[in-house]
């Protein structure tokens, strides 16, 4: 039988509960808004500091993470003293500078260019692939043709310094690319990078979280110096060199791309974070997969992973010592952190 008193009591209670719920919902929103209002950008290697600074110009004005990562990686792409990314990158064994890049946004959209020649900013061509075509990847001549159609300028990317280094290499011309191991290349007294031509490979991978709480990433490289013409590494491969999942976080990699591709490294790192791993632990597990599968190979190569989760927590892990990464947020603009490593 209908009992008015009970009904009134019950509805008063449910109104009160609703008020509590509303409040806690409001609190949650407030909490998550304050989390979301803390933009951050991280990127591989100490040359990431200058790249982060340009990304920060976008993030600090409440700009989109996608714009931040594109503009951030323009810095090493345009820097001719950086011989592992963009303009001035070391060529393949035939003397051709072929660039790899990819970009991914908060909606899971992505674009990539593989073995692109003559264009200084492959990351921007990758973004055009993402935004203007129904495809994800364009390679070689097709990528160049598309870039020219989009108004990019055709340039010679082989600088005198890189040509000289290549000609030196030609004297012995060992077709097996030599892998650099950064700890041997660092000047121990003054631990900054030595001149560019001492590095056979390295990549800028960048992940940003913007004030709206959205993640995006970019990855760009000239790949392995003196590689076989047409060789593609991990850097332009979504899931290997870069992966973003706006629910969870993002990851990127640097080092010998073949091993990263074999383990779908960046996707793995993001999936491990989904399972509750911290960014550093996720990077470590991805490194351990490489080491467990090929312990002898792993001894002589470098691979490093870098990750950022949705809460703005970050971490990295590498096979060898010497991997560094740069962090920029509201507290610190030029932080360089030495990543932990297995060896
Ligand atoms: N991952 C790049 C590649 O394999 C090189 C590097 O980052 O060291 O092309």
CATH-level-4 superfamily name: (Glycosyl)asparaginase
Strand content: 15-25%
User: How many whole angstroms does the radius of gyration measure?
Assistant: 23 Å
Give helix % range: 25-40%
The sequence of SSEs as H and E is HEHHEEHEHHHEEEEHHHHEEEEE
Small molecules bound? aspartic acid
Describe the structure.
This protein is of the alpha+beta class and 343 residues long. It has a single domain, classed as 4-Layer Sandwich (Glutamine Phosphoribosylpyrophosphate, subunit 1, domain 1). Helix content is 39%, strand content 20%. An 8-stranded mixed β-sheet has the order 4-3-2-6-5-1-11-12. β9 and β10 (314-318) form a beta hairpin. α2 runs antiparallel to α3 (65-78), α3 (65-78) packs antiparallel against α4 (122-132) and α9 (265-274) packs across α10 (279-293). The longest helix has 33 residues, at 4-36. It is globular, with a radius of gyration of 23 Å. Mean pLDDT is 87; it is low at 1-35 and 186-192. The structure holds aspartic acid (ASP). Residues 201-203, 221, 223-224, 233-235, 254-257 line the site of aspartic acid (ASP). Aspartic acid binds next to β8. Pfam families: Asparaginase_2. Residues 1-26 form the signal peptide. Substrate binds at residues 231-234, 254-257. InterPro entries: Ntn_hydrolases_N (IPR029055), Peptidase_T2 (IPR000246), TAT_signal (IPR006311). Keywords: Signal.
């Amino acid at each position: 039988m209908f009992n008015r008193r009970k009904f009134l009591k019950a509805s008063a209670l449910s109104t009160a509960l609703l008020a509590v719920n509303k409040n806690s919902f409001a609190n949650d929103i407030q909490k998550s808004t304050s989390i979301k209002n803390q933009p951050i950008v991280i990127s591989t290697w100490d040359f990431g500091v200058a790249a982060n600074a340009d990304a920060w110009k976008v993030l600090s004005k409440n700009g989109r993470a996608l714009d931040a990562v594109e503009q951030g990686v323009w810095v090493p792409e345009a820097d001719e003293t950086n011989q592992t990314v963009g303009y001035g990158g070391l060529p393949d064994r035939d003397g051709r500078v072929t660039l790899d890049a990819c970009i991914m946004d908060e909606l899971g959209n992505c674009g990539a260019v593989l073995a692109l020649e003559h264009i200084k900013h492959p990351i921007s061509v990758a973004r055009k692939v993402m935004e203007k075509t129904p495809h994800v990847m364009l390679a070689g001549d097709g990528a160049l043709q598309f870039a020219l159609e989009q108004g990019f300028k055709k340039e010679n990317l082989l600088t005198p310094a890189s040509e000289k280094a290549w000609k030196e290499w030609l004297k012995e011309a060992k077709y097996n690319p030599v892998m650099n191991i950064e700890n041997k290349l660092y000047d121990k007294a003054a631990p900054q990078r030595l001149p560019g031509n001492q590095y056979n490979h390295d990549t800028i991978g960048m992940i940003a979280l913007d004030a709206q709480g959205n993640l995006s990433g970019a990855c760009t490289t000239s790949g392995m110096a003196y590689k076989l013409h047409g060789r593609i590494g991990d850097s332009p491969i979504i899931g290997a060199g870069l992966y973003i999942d706006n629910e969870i976080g993002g990851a990127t990699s640097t080092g010998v791309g073949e091993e990263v591709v074999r383990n779908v490294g960046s996707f793995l790192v993001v999936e491990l974070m989904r399972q509750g791993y911290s960014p550093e632990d996720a990077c470590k597990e991805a490194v351990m997969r490489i080491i467990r599968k090929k312990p002898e190979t792993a001894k002589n190569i470098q691979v490093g992973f870098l990750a950022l989760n949705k809460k703005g927590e970050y971490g990295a892990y590498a096979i060898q010592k010497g991997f560094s990464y740069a962090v920029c947020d509201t507290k610190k603009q030029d932080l360089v952190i030495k990543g932990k490593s297995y060896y």
